[in-house]
Amino acid sequence: MSTPAGAGGVWLVVVLGNPGPSYAGHRHNVGRMVVEELASRMGSTFRAHKSGRADVVEGRLGTPGAGPTPRVVLARPTSYMNESGGPVSALAKFYKVHPARIVAIHDELDIDFGALRSKLGGGDNGHNGLRSMRSSLGTGDFHRVRVGVGRPPGRTSVVDFVLSDFASVERKELPLLLGEAADAIECL
Questions:
Q1: Distance (Å, rounded) from C-alpha 123 to C-alpha 145?
Q2: Alpha-carbon distance 56 to 142, whole Å?
Q3: 188 with 103: CB under 8 angstroms?
């Protein structure tokens, strides 16, 4: 594996979400929306990785001319969120990325809509995508950018809530949230 965070090398930015157009606007896929914003900033489009288990964009993130910018691989696993650990682990091995240089972007129920939190390491807090990554990588010592989607209203089940589209009021604020999340990843 490559060197840990702080040293040179590649960063792997992965999204925890579900593939396909039927899931595109769901709260569970807010991470996919963020990584698409990052790809747009890089002026690139996703292409199938030779592993067949993810779509990737390779390039650099950051402000041109502001000093060296790190090499980054943006990845959208083509598996469902609950099975994303295998593709993430395969990409980490392929690109020789240490877990401390992996950033997972995902939705977070315990954070209000519109808020962001980032951290290094931690448990999975019941998030099946994180559980799959921890299991496949053999560690939870990777970065997380947690995008708040809030709690379900009333008696709405968690599954129904995260597998539904954002409300119309939220959709108006979503571009700002996606931009702030992309900025947070660039700061890492």
A1: 14
A2: 19
A3: yes
- Taking only the tens place, the pLDDT of each residue in 124-176 is 877 889 999 999 999 999 999 999 999 999 999 999 999 999 999 999 999 99
- On whether the CB atoms of residues 19 and 78 are closer than 8 A, the answer is yes
Buried b (16+ CB within 10 A) or exposed e, 36-74: bbbbebbeeeeeebebebbbbbeeebeeeeeeeeeebbb
Q: Is there a contact between 61 and 185 (Cβ–Cβ < 8 Å)? A: yes
Whether 28 is a known active-site residue: answer yes
Residue of 26, 28, 98, 143 with catalytic role: 28
Indicate whether this model's pTM tops 0.85: yes
